[in-house]
Amino acid sequence: MLATLLALTLATPAGLLPGSSPAIVSPTPQPATLTAVRHRPVHHRKVAPKIPHLHAWMCIHSHEAPNWTIANAPYYGGLQMDLGFQRTYGTAYFRTKGTANHWTPAQQMLAAERAWRARGFSPWPNTARMCGLRT
């Protein structure tokens, strides 16, 4: 009898009595697995700011300086801006990048646009006249 009981105990799953039905047991939760999803690469293009008087600034630049990085004190950059001009119309650029010869051409032209709103092309009287612009 002991041998039969021992055989029966080994043959049944743990916790079940002979003749009883197995209980429904939920599966053990498994850790979530992450599946890598491939997306097409997103190419972020830097959009150049709109410069309303682009052609005017390019003409003034062509008469003022040979390049946008010229540092010929007391004038700097492609539009030959003095320090007072830079501090007034390019404050953020001047504070973060220094003089105009370290600014991008677009930044130099944006500072010039700010000046244009207040003063027109009068900071460049001779070159503006050569470019056919009213001062």
Structure description:
By secondary structure, the protein is an all-alpha fold. It has a domain at 66-130: Lysozyme, CATH 1.10.530.10. Helices cover 41% and strands 3% of the residues. It is built from 6 helices and 2 strands. It has a two-stranded antiparallel ribbon with strand order 1-2. A hairpin with a 2-residue loop joins strand 1 (71-72) and strand 2. Helix 3 (83-89) packs across helix 4. Mean pLDDT is 83; it is low at 4-10.
List keywords for this structure.
mainly alpha, 135 residues, two-stranded antiparallel sheet, elongated, Lysozyme
Secondary structure elements and their pairing?
Layout: H1 2-11, H2 54-64, E1 71-72, E2 75-76, H3 83-89, H4 91-97, H5 105-119, H6 125-130
Antiparallel strand pairs: 1-2
The CATH topology of the domain at 66-130 is Lysozyme
**Oligomeric state of the chains in view:** single chain
CATH C-level name of the domain at 66-130: Mainly Alpha
**Which CATH architecture of the domain at 66-130 would you pick?**
Orthogonal Bundle
Structural class: mainly alpha
In angstroms, what separates the terminal alpha carbons?
A: 118 Å
In the predicted model, the low-confidence regions spanning at least 5 consecutive residues are 4-10
Silhouette: elongated
What does the average pLDDT come to?
A: 83
